[in-house]
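Hi all, long-time lurker, first post. I run a small reading group and we've been trying to get comfortable going from sequence to structure in the token notation. Rather than ask abstract questions, I figured I'd post a concrete chain and ask someone more experienced to write out its structure so we can walk through it together at our next meeting. Sequence below, copied exactly:
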Amino acid sequence: MAARLGIKPGDLILESGWRDGADEALRKEIFSAAGNEPVGDGAQEVVDLVLLWWREDDGDLVDALVDSMTFLDAHGVIWLFTPKMGRAGHVEPSDIQESAQTAGLAQTSTFAVGADWSATKLNAPKGGRR
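-- Answer (accepted) --
Happy to help. Here is the structure in token form:
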């Protein structure tokens, strides 16, 4: 799955929103492929990508996306992991799309990344961030 997410050796990854219930096997695969430990929320480094674990009751998704972009490389992406439909904490696709647009991001793909989680790829439009 790490290859499908575009994870490469040496990628520096900021992880946010991880807590109990996140897919541990997926996390291990991602960070093993990158060869780095995750960068935490308090870090000040520029990162290649952001893994944002998000549930419906986690707060304002727009704010979380804008915060995620703060340390993201100009060509980096945000992978938004949300519970699949029918799982506790599921986020409606329309909410994701609206939040992404408000944050100045484009939604490019969504697919399953395990039994309980979906991944949505978000990146800045080709013309640059707003």
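A couple of things your group might point at:
The helical segments are 24-34, 61-69, 93-102.
The chain has three helices and five strands.
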